[in-house]
Design goal:
507 residues, mainly alpha, two-stranded antiparallel sheet
């Protein structure tokens, strides 16, 4: 217990860790606020600069960027009607009408306080439920992890992009990239085409930086001539009466965010939209109509998207499956530092789990401080021309990629992935599932091999194992339901069920 408390408060009393957490949170707010500069991109670039650090300073900086970046997107959503991140799309629906009424300061104050509140709800859920989930996950075997990997990719495919097929294609492409290199069982080359440089595989950090950083920079070239909008800020501190009035809405929205964040592949953007929809359906007498500056529609998504941060850490730390794109990148950071996220991580290195919980709580405190200050400085930064920002992003991406192995070939991979990612974004493909596939692919491969060896390479025994064990059966049913729900037959089945219920009610 004493060791856990020391780990929990480590970043609060160590000056260096305190500074890194504060700096990460501050940077995350401003990176997340600039349209096109995603927190995922910032995290992927950070990993390349922190891979030689000790693990706790690296996690402190990355955790701060994550917490600040999720909140930061609300700033431009309110002031410019341009969401700085997908999780701020719902915020723009009510925040910008408030800004047009001269209430931008009040809107920013409400989003800050509610984001901090939601963040602490998610962190509390992480601290309370992650150890229990980890204890349960120890009972998982190889075939269960294979199923979890498939479910994680399919969930990302079903919740992102224009279509399920595009999401699954992106995830499969990531698995293919992750398979390049030496076979872990036979040491034979796979997809290397006789190239010695591919024997060690494709660096997933280069893939992350390319797909998120460079691809986003290329996308922003389409809007170089976007006019700069000047803003004025008035009152920031929210009214106490508003905090009391909307407290329970914030509690319920935070619960939605935590649960959605814990689903592999969902993330804060899905959580924010669901919470906004919940507020819209349950609020009977809003001060203003939704779409015209309703505070309920501002509070719900902001509480939910920051609560999703703590929720996203739960499957990452307990099952080794990221809750969203950022935690997919953080898993890469953990692997770089020699750690293996999953149920044994909480058994073998519990101090890192409690350090993460305490560090996120500290970052959330800095979020409150920085969120309510520096607004005028912020309005100047968001007016920085993209013609300056985009070359800076490219330079940081090149330097960060080269710094991993001091290998120029990694830069070529990064640029190639940037070009591929650009065209994927143009044609409506999400790049998040690709990174998830790169991370989960080797895990799925090794667990599939182990499961087959456990079945003595008999396909009949292998298939029977999926339905003869309780955990495997539940995961198999969930996987099949997820697949069937995306087919036309599912719609026919649901209409038949609805018609049957209607006939039963009449009878």
């Amino acid at each position: 217990m004493a060791e856990s408390f020391v780990s929990l408060t480590a970043s609060w009393f160590d000056p260096w860790l305190l500074f890194l957490t504060a700096a990460g949170t501050f940077a995350g707010i401003y990176v997340g606020a600039i349209p096109g500069l995603s927190v995922t991109m910032a995290t992927s670039i950070l990993i390349s600069f922190t891979f030689k650090w000790d693990v706790t300073p690296a996690l402190a900086l990355i955790g701060g960027v994550f917490m600040g970046g999720v909140y930061g997107g609300s700033r431009t959503a309110i002031l410019l009607n341009i969401p700085g991140a997908p999780s701020a799309i719902a915020t723009a629906l009510e925040g910008y009408p408030m800004a047009k009424r001269g209430e931008a300061g009040e809107a920013i104050g409400l989003t800050t306080v509610m984001s901090v509140f939601g963040g602490y709800v998610g962190i509390l859920a992480l601290a309370l439920f992650a150890p229990a989930i980890s204890s349960f996950a120890i009972m998982f075997n190889s075939r269960d992890y294979l199923l979890l990997g498939l479910i994680g990719i399919l969930l990302v495919g079903s919740l992102s992009g224009e279509s399920f097929a595009k999401g699954v294609f992106a995830g499969a492409l990531g698995v293919l990239i992750g398979m390049v290199g030496l076979d872990p069982m036979t040491a034979e080359g796979r997809f290397t085409f006789g190239s010695i440089s591919l024997m060690g595989g494709i660096p997933y950090v280069a893939a992350m930086i390319g797909f998120f950083g460079v691809a986003e920079a290329f996308i922003q070239l389409h809007s170089l001539d976007m006019p700069v909008v000047k803003q004025r800020i008035d009152r920031i501190i929210p009214r106490l009466s508003d905090l009391r009035r909307y407290f329970w809405l914030a509690v319920r929205s935070s619960g939605i965010g935590t649960i959605i964040g814990a689903l592999p592949g969902a993330g804060g953007d899905i959580a924010a939209l669901l919470a906004y929809d919940y507020a819209k359906r349950t609020t009977k007498n809003p001060e203003r109509p939704f779409g015209e500056g309703a505070k309920e529609g501002l509070i719900a998504p902001e509480a939910a998207n920051n609560a999703a941060v703590g929720g996203a850490y739960i499957p990452m730390l307990t099952l080794g499956i990221p809750g969203d794109a950022v935690t997919a990148v953080i898993i890469g950071a953990l692997f770089i530092h020699g750690l293996k996220p999953g149920p044994l991580m909480l058994v073998e290195t519990p101090h890192l789990f409690w350090f993460t919980v305490g560090n996120l709580a500290l970052a959330n405190l800095f979020l409150l401080i920085f969120g309510l200050t520096g607004i005028r400085i912020f309005t100047k930064i968001i007016e920085c021309p993209k013609a300056i920002l985009i070359p800076l992003i490219i330079i940081l991406s090149v330097v960060g990629t080269y710094a991993i192995q001091n290998n120029p070939v990694d830069i070529y991979w990064m640029l190639l992935f940037g070009v591929v990612g650009y065209f994927m974004k143009v044609y409506g493909f999400e790049v998040g599932p690709i990174i998830l596939g790169v991370i989960l692919g080797p895990m799925m491969d090794s667990n599939y091999r182990r499961a087959m060896m456990g079945a003595r390479n008999d396909i009949g025994i292998f298939a029977w194992d999926f339905v003869s064990h309780p955990i495997s059966l539940v995961l198999t049913v969930f996987l099949l339901t997820l697949l069937l729900s995306r087919t036309p037959l599912w719609g026919v089945f649901m209409r038949w069920v609805g018609a049957s219920r209607g006939r039963g009610a009449k009878g």
